[in-house]
Amino acid sequence: MINYNFYNPTRLVFGENTIEKIGELIAQRGYRKILMIAGGGSIKKNGVYDAVVQSLTKNQVAWVECWGVQANPCLTKVREAIAIAKEEKVEAILAVGGGSVIDTTKATAAGVFAADIWKVFEREEKIINALPIFTVLTLSATASEMNCSAVITNEDEEKKYGTGHPLLYPAVSVIEPSAQNSLPWEQTVNGALDAMAHIMEFYFMGTIEETVLGVDEALLKSIIKAISRLKLKQDDSIARANLAWAITMGLNGISGAGLKGGDWACHDMSHSISSMYHSIAHGAALGVLFPAWMEYVCETNQHQFDRFAKGIFDCIDIEEGVIKFRNLIKSWQGCTTLSQLGVKEEDIPALAKMTVARGPIGRLQTLDEKDVENILRLAY
C-alpha cells in the first residue's frame, strides 16, 4: 500500500423524506438565490421537482432554472448554464438529477469564474474558484454527488474529458433512495455497471491491501445482490437503499485508498465510444469493455484477477470469472458486446485513435493504440 491522503467534505443526507430538507440545507449556509439545473423533465413526473420547489419556497430561497441536460453531458449546455448563472447573479447551484446533471453543475460552478471552461478540461486553464454546489440525486451511478470530479463532452470536437478539483465537492448531497423506484430498469442496471467499473478500476491495481480490497469486494457483492433483488421488485426499499449507498461509496475516495490512483483505461475507452455515439450510456459501455479488458491484461496481475474471480463469482480463475461476469450482465438484460450497443466495426480503428489522442492509457498495463484496438475487437 502506498501513502495517500483522504479528504471528503461533502455532507450526505441519506434516507426517506430527505428531499424536503434541501431548502433548509441551502438557507442554513446563507444562500438566497440559486440556479437549479435538471435533465429532461422526469423529476416533474415522479414528484421530486415539486418537493424541491416546496422546500425552496418554504425556506425563502429564490431560484432560476436550466433544463435539458442529457446523458453524456455536453459543453453547449454547460455554457448555457454559465450564462444564466452570471446574468442572474446566483449564489449557489443546485443539481436535481443524476451524474450528468451533477457534472454539468460542477462545470458550471467552476465556469462562472473561468475564462473558458473547456480549456479547464483541456488542461490549459486551472480552476480558481467555484460557486457552492448542492445536489438532489435521482439516479445512482457516478458518485458525482460525493466526489470532486466531472466529465463533459465537447460535441463539436467529439472529445469527452474529465477534470477535478477540491472546489467541486458538493457542499451537501441529498439521497432519497425511493425517488429512484420509478427509473427505467435499463438505467438502474447501467448505474450499477458504472459503479462496479469505478470500484474495479482501483481493485485490480491491488496486491496486499487487505482492508481496502475487502471493502471493494463487499461493495461489488452488495451491488450485485441489490440489483438481483430489484429485478424481482423495483421498489424493494432495502435493496434500493443498499444500492444507492454502495454506488456512492464506489467513487467517494474510500474504494481507492492506497490503490495508486486506479487504472482508468476502460473509462478512457468508454469516453471515446460515447463521444462518437452520444446515445450509448457510459455504464452500458463499461459493462461491455471491462470483461474484454480483463481478458487482455489479466496476466499483468494474475493473482489479483484470480482473487476477484474467486471472491465475487466463486470461480477458480479469471477465465471462468469473465464468463460469469458476462452471464450476470445478460441476466440483468444488459449488453455484453459493442455490436449490441450499436457500435460499428469499421469505427473501431477511429475509436482506438481517439482513445490515445493524449497518449497511452492505463496504469496496470500501459496500452497503446494497437492494444486499445485489440480490446475493442475482443469486446465486439
CATH level-four homologous superfamily name of the largest domain: Dehydroquinate synthase-like - alpha domain
Average pLDDT number? 97
Q: At the third CATH level, what is the topology name of the largest domain?
A: Dehydroquinate synthase-like, alpha domain
Number of domains as seen in the coordinates: 2
Q: What's the CATH first level of the largest domain?
A: Mainly Alpha
Poorly predicted parts: none
Question: Could you give the topology of this structure?
Answer:
Elements: E1 11-14, H1 22-27, E2 33-38, H2 48-58, E3 62-66, H3 75-88, E4 92-97, H4 99-111, H5 117-121, E5 133-137, E6 149-154, E7 159-164, E8 172-175, H6 185-203, H7 210-232, H8 237-249, H9 265-276, H10 282-297, H11 302-313, H12 318-331, H13 338-341, H14 348-355, H15 369-379
Parallel strand pairs: 1-8, 2-3, 2-4, 4-5, 5-8
Antiparallel strand pairs: 6-7
Helix pairs in contact: 3-4, 6-7, 6-8, 6-10, 7-8, 9-10, 9-14, 10-12, 10-15, 11-12, 14-15
